[in-house]
UniProtKB/TrEMBL annotation:
UniProt entry keywords in alphabetical sequence: DNA-binding, Transcription, Transcription regulation
Name assigned to this protein: HTH-type transcriptional regulator CysL
InterPro entries named among the record's database cross-references: LysR_HTH_N (IPR000847), LysR_subst-bd (IPR005119), WH-like_DNA-bd_sf (IPR036388), WH_DNA-bd_sf (IPR036390)
Pfam family membership, one: HTH_1
Family: Belongs to the LysR transcriptional regulatory family.
Domain of life: Bacteria
Keyword Phosphoprotein attached: no
HTH lysR-type domain boundaries: 1-61
The keyword Transcription is annotated on this UniProt entry: yes
Any one GO molecular function term: transcription cis-regulatory region binding
Organism from which the protein derives: Desulfosporosinus acididurans
Length: 311
């Protein structure tokens, strides 16, 4: 049962009925009336024009409109205060060594760390970025507490959690003959020049697997050690590539290169959180893991970019 006249008032305004508010807050109708009456007495002003339980159209007075604006702010501040006090009384301190393979490390890890640091300011965080295989081996050697990777992880001593889906797309230079096509088939990809990541990269493993499955003949290939370099090579006109949509979202918006759909195929893979299986996790690692597994990373990324944080 809620005994908070401010919250009750805001709920009445948003649900537009006293009876609905009573149901929502597990109150009797008389309790809702009583709490609104106390507020009006304290403010020495009427908040509603027709405060009837049976009213189908509840209207705020001018005083009610003013008070609603500030009541929302009061509730938000109360929530923030409770959160800060909770963090103060349950302070997690220590250090965290977190790694990421290049794609997820450069485009996902920064905002995951930003979100974590906001909740746990007492934790010192050190990040490492390398290709998937190097990050996996660092976790196995206990050089990292936890890591985010793309690509297959086939080690029995590593615990794996899928955290989100990644879309792989085909990108081509704007001046490339394929750029004129509305949609590509596997036949269109024969005898092309490909830009590939280095061996050990999750993106390279994904590209190699598809090229083999589709029976594609690669006329020539160039290998680069990062997604950023692959992207720039495609923009420069060197060849075509399969990349995560994450790494080219800005360039696609700016029309610096072209993405092509492949007929009958939507290419996806999983991003994973990995940690040593047989090592007892400390409080910091557990907090980081719980936050990642409990949040929608896409939503978090959009929230941070709206705040002007460029990730």
């Amino acid at each position: 049962m809620i005994n908070d006249p401010i919250k009750t008032f805001v709920t009445v305004v948003e649900l537009k009925k006293f009876s609905h508010t009573a149901e929502e807050l597990y109150l009797a109708n008389t309790d809702v009336n009583s709490q609104i009456g106390r507020l009006e007495q304290e403010l020495d002003a009427k908040l509603f024009n027709n405060p009837s339980n049976s009213s189908s159209h509840l209207e705020l007075t001018l005083a009610g409109e003013i008070y609603y604006k500030y009541a929302k702010q009061i509730i938000n501040l109360q929530d923030k205060a409770r959160e800060e006090i909770k963090n103060l009384t349950n302070m997690v301190t220590g250090s965290l060594r977190v790694g990421g393979s290049y794609t997820i490390g450069e485009y996902i890890l920064p905002f995951a760390v930003t979100e974590f640091a906001a909740h746990y300011p007492g934790v010192e965080i050190e990040t490492s970025i390398a290709n998937t295989e190097e990050i996996i081996q660092a976790v196995r050697r206990n050089q990292l507490d936890v890591a985010l990777v793309e690509g297959e992880v086939n080690h029995t001593d590593i615990q794996i959690h899928s955290i989100m889906e990644d879309e792989i797309i085909l990108v081509v230079p704007n001046q490339h003959p394929l750029a004129k096509l509305p949609i590509a088939t596997s036949e269109h990809l024969q005898d092309q020049v490909w830009i590939l990541r280095e061996s050990g990269s999750g993106t390279r493993a994904f590209s190699d697997k598809l090229i083999k499955e589709w029976g594609i003949n690669v006329r020539k290939s160039y290998v680069f050690g990062s997604g950023q370099a692959v992207k720039q090579a495609v923009i420069a006109g060197l060849g075509i590539a399969l990349v995560s949509r994450w790494i080219v979202r800005k360039e696609l918006n700016a029309k610096e290169l072209k993405s092509l759909r492949i007929k009958g195929k939507r290419l996806t893979r999983s991003f994973y959180l990995i940690e040593p299986k047989n090592q007892e996790a400390n409080e910091v690692t557990e907090a980081f893991t719980e936050q990642l597994l409990g949040q929608d990373l896409i939503t978090s990324w959009r929230k941070l970019t709206k705040k002007g944080i460029d990730l």
